[in-house]
Amino acid sequence: MLALFGLRVWPVFKDGALYGPFWDNVWVYGPVFSRASQIALQGSFPYWLDTVLGGFPLYQTPHFSATYPFYFFGLIDYGSAIQSLYTLTTLTFFHLFILYVNLYVMLRVAGARGLASLCGATIGLASGNTEVYAHWITISAAYTWFPLLVAGMIRLARAPLSFWSIALLSLSAGLIGTASPSQAVIHAAFVGAVFFIGTGVWLWRKNGPGACGRLLVGLIVSGIVAFGLVGVAFLPMTLATSGMIRHIGGASVIGHAPIPWANFNHLQLAPAALTHLLIDPRNLKVVGGLYIGPLAFLGLFLLPLAYRRGDAFTRFLIVICGLLALYFLAAGFGTHFGISYLHFYLPLLNRIREAGRHLVVFTIMATLLAGLGLNVLPDLLAGRERLSGRWRRFFWIAAVAGIVAFIPALIFDHPKIFVGWLTLLCLPLAFFILRRTSFGEWALASGLVGLAAVASFLSPPSTQPFFVSDYLRPENLRSHRVLRRLAEIPDIRSYRVTVQDSSVLPPIWGSNASYYGIRTFYLWMTPQPYDQFREMFLDRKPNLRELRGAKYFVCGQEVKPLNPKARLLFVESGYRIYEVPDAMEPYTLVHAAKSFKDEESFRRALSQGFEYGEIAAYPEDAGKKWAKRLSDLNSAPVASPPAGDLLQPISNTPNLFAVEANASRPGVLIFNQRWSKDWHARVNSAPEEVMRVDFTHVGVFLPAGRNYVEFEYKPILFWRLLLLQRATFIAVLLVAGWKMARSRRLLPVGIGKPACGG
């Protein structure tokens, strides 16, 4: 497996080819993963990203969770810009190999032998869906563990109260949910529900209600363990969904609103695409792949023989996985086979708008079925199993049909497979590894390995050279030149940058700026918090950006900041960079406060010259809560600036900020970060409740005199769920260690340790 995988990916890896060097990786995953890795390498947890959207709550996104161990946050640096694209591709190759191993494990658990499992796993590795999903690291990472989840389901059905069954199912579910708590979780829930309902009915009929009860207990325990592992990613995202906006093919869905029917069947397959089950097209234009290839057809042709000779559970497994494979194959065609009309009303599944995305389940189930079919070949050709006349004829017809299926695939796919021939170099290795008792068995084994190699080069990795990347767009390169010049300004990271440009979208500027540690208000990610999405388009509101700490403005042709005090700093690549003198500082101490009915009334006052550097604004409904302190604050005359006030920043880490404040009299310390309930404060080491100031800032009341103030970003629910995740994982490891040690102690004498002279 190592040899075949290495020979498959090495040519494209050494040539510097990339998976998906386009919009999502260049301007979404690249900058987000890069910034998260930088925060983690500093020893902080990347709860949020300070460089985009004015402060993006990363722990609430359904794209991925920073707790997923195989993104390696805190262990590797994703790098900036171009380097992040190569890091994402390397990480994708890593997950593709883990997928290969997990497919093999799934087939072994299902009952296939090693050689059939190798061939079946190769079918899944080289499938069209695997290569399509490899363009998005979060999707690829989540579905990497789906075969292991299927293996856990099969093992739990066989031994529902076994610790190893529960551990396999729950750990794989935890990895899926933390890699991306979205589409893969929906598919896992649906497949699991169908599989276990079917298993329960089968067990009830075969062994009675007692067997069904044991399965239910195993499922409950697995669910508890799985929640302990995945709750940290799934629960905060679920609670935040009501405040998210999702952009769907020209439409927008806010919160839990349903997807409009007109946008629900985006990019579905036409029935004519069924030919691409055998011939790899690479132009289906759906997020998902149909191709499984001729080796899968060989295995599927032999599947009736596997059903005939299998035990009762194997037959049940073939039937239920076959039904799932057919269902999700039909689902990929959307309205053509009617499945979309059903999914539109099914909870969870109605959150997946692209019909082609369902093909991933078809691919995994087809891989399982094909591997079980291929499993009959060694015994039949070696003579260990005999077939009657009609079954013998069926076998030879199926085998010949499966081999013949390679011919059209070779004819139609030959223009793109010339580098794939390297995979045949694994055959000499197979000669030495595959020990067989007869020449016929060795020939069969080598032949199957050869077919697996051919199946691999029929569908090579769908990487692209760097020169086609969106990164090389002229307008993108100009923005990087401007940002490199901006990054040289000494205090650039203490303030934010506003962009007013019609040729390059502000979200692209925001993504690129994140690589340089420059803070902006922009990021185009779907879904994203609705309030922050609206704030991206407020660049022309007078004084609002200055209130948020925007000191520098990047302006395109014939655009200028509304602020009359703006001063031109320099011109770079056709862009004019302005500086304003009245941007709010990172910390501001004020001694007066004024109430406003709502945010809109505050913005009107702000556009008319509200002195945000001297007066704290607060909503009327908060006035009752802070009535005593506000009364004391407003009772004294306002001095501008107050004599004796002094602010000295002490610490500035991604999650913890500290400042020493010498207040001449009681006041409000305003911390220029976007308001969130996840901010907490300590004044002189004592917890102090934070206040929402200016409808967008974090503030805290200070007594007169010298004070040491800390602001910490710490989502409490997430933190507790993180502790639960760690505790659950440690508990599973401890039980696993105890079980292994106990089983070793119970081994009969002479097993596990050779006798003297043995």
Count of discrete structural domains = 3
Give the DSSP E fraction (strand runs of 2 or more residues): 5-15%
Please count the helical segments.
29
Task: Outline the biggest β-sheet.
Answer: 5 strands, antiparallel
Task: Walk across the major sheet and give the strand order.
Answer: 11-12-18-14-15
Helix content: 40-55%
- What's the total count of β strands? 18
- Report low-confidence residues grouped into runs of 5 or more: 750-758
Intertermini distance:
33 Å
Shape: elongated
Radius of gyration: 30 Å
Mean pLDDT score, rounded?
Answer: 89
Structural class: alpha+beta
Oligomer: single chain
Can you tell me about this structure?
By secondary structure, the chain is α+β, with helices and mostly antiparallel strands. It folds into 3 domains: 2-458, no CATH class; 473-579; 587-716, no CATH class. 49% of the residues lie in helices and 12% in strands. A 5-stranded antiparallel β-sheet has the order 11-12-18-14-15, with no helix packed on it. It has a 4-stranded mixed β-sheet with strand order 3-5-7-6. Strands 8-13-17-16 form a 4-stranded antiparallel β-sheet, with no helix packed on it. A hairpin with a 3-residue loop joins strand 16 (691-693) and strand 17 (697-702). Helix 7 runs parallel beside helix 9 (183-207). The longest helix has 32 residues, at 209-240. The radius of gyration is 30 Å and the shape is elongated. The two termini are 33 Å apart. The model is unreliable at 750-758 (pLDDT under 50).
List keywords for this structure.
758 residues, alpha+beta, 3 domains, 5-stranded antiparallel β-sheet, 4-stranded mixed β-sheet, 29 helices, elongated, disordered C terminus
